[in-house]
């Protein structure tokens, strides 16, 4: 049976956008789409990457909602519709990546008892990094989890060690809340932003359309402090011995030609996890695996669906 067509530029009927207050009072913009069946399949909490907005994933949400899943998401603190942490309106900034994990912990504490099980957390890129930290640190314990092109390392001049030292050096000169670079998702590259993210021009254009309609959702380059904290958090996560005992069933989708995050770092961490299935994509996929062309996207969604069918059961 062919998959239903979803309008990627309209909020689905029955969904709700609302404000969720974090424990410190910071307002996070959230999305909720309850299952429309007497016997829900379960609930998915989906989290995007740096600078993401949940509107980019409405087509994906439609696929799972049609299977009976309740769908929930929120924009990370300091980006999208969840406000900014610096006076530079479009700069993505964070004081400490632990703040992201704290938001995930508090949000999940409400989401788990309020939605039908089994519960699944799925996260892309920076969201994948935060989710894995949350799993390892006990901030959230779903029945199963999926990491999509997780930011567990980045391509840096001279490698992770030198990259972090350079970030600290550059960020230590002047105001570290200033943007680390001006354009694109990656400095010093000749590749267009689209080629870094997806080969699918139509899906790529959806993001621009939403930001034209709602310019307040746009998040540009990260701050130097964000970059410094990202390097620190990735380093500490790679060395965390609790990776070896994190027993939530995990699926990891890795784009081996990813121009933004380092797939080798993700594979190295996967080798430490006791219960993980890794699915690799070659040059056919850029960073946004779930927003790629249909061949790649359908394979990725199929792998997730099979994984959830096998592993997403109530504990």
Automatic annotation (TrEMBL):
Record keyword Transcription regulation present: no
Keywords of this entry: Hydrolase
Occurrences of domain Serine aminopeptidase S33 (ranges): 39-293
Gene Ontology molecular function: any one: hydrolase activity
Superkingdom of the source species: Bacteria
PANTHER family assigned to the protein according to its UniProt record, in alphabetical order: PHOSPHOLIPASE-RELATED (PTHR11614)
Name the UniProt record assigns to this protein: Alpha/beta hydrolase
């Amino acid at each position: 049976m062919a998959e239903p067509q979803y309008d990627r530029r309209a909020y689905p009927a029955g969904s709700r956008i609302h404000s969720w207050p974090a424990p410190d009072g910071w307002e996070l913009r959230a999305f909720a789409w309850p299952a429309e069946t007497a016997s829900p399949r379960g609930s998915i909490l989906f989290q995007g990457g740096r600078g993401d907005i949940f509107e980019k994933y409405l087509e994906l949400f439609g696929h799972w909602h049609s299977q009976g899943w309740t769908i929930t998401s929120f924009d990370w603190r300091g980006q999208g519709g969840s406000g900014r942490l610096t006076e530079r309106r479009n700069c993505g900034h964070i004081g400490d990546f632990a703040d992201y994990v704290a938001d995930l912990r508090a949000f999940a504490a409400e989401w788990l008892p309020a939605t039908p099980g089994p519960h699944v957390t799925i996260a892309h890129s920076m969201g994948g990094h935060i989710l894995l930290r949350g799993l390892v640190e006990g901030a959230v314990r779903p029945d199963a989890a999926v990491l999509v092109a997780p930011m567990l390392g980045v391509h840096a001049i001279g490698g992770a060690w030198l990259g972090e030292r350079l970030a600290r050096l550059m960020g230590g000169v002047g105001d570290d809340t200033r943007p680390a670079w001006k354009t694109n998702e990656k400095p010093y590259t000749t590749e267009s932003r689209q080629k870094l993210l997806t080969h699918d021009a139509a899906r790529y254009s959806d993001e621009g359309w939403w930001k034209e309609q709602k310019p307040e959702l746009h998040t540009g380059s990260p701050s130097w402090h964000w970059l410094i904290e990202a390097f620190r958090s990735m380093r500490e996560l790679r060395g965390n011995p609790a990776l070896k005992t994190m027993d939530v069933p995990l699926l990891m989708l890795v784009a081996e030609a990813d121009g933004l995050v380092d797939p080798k770092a993700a594979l190295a961490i996967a080798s430490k996890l006791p219960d993980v299935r890794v699915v690799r994509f070659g040059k056919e996929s850029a960073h946004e695996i779930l927003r790629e062309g249909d061949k790649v996207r359908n394979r990725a969604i199929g792998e997730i669906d099979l994984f959830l069918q096998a592993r997403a059961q109530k504990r």
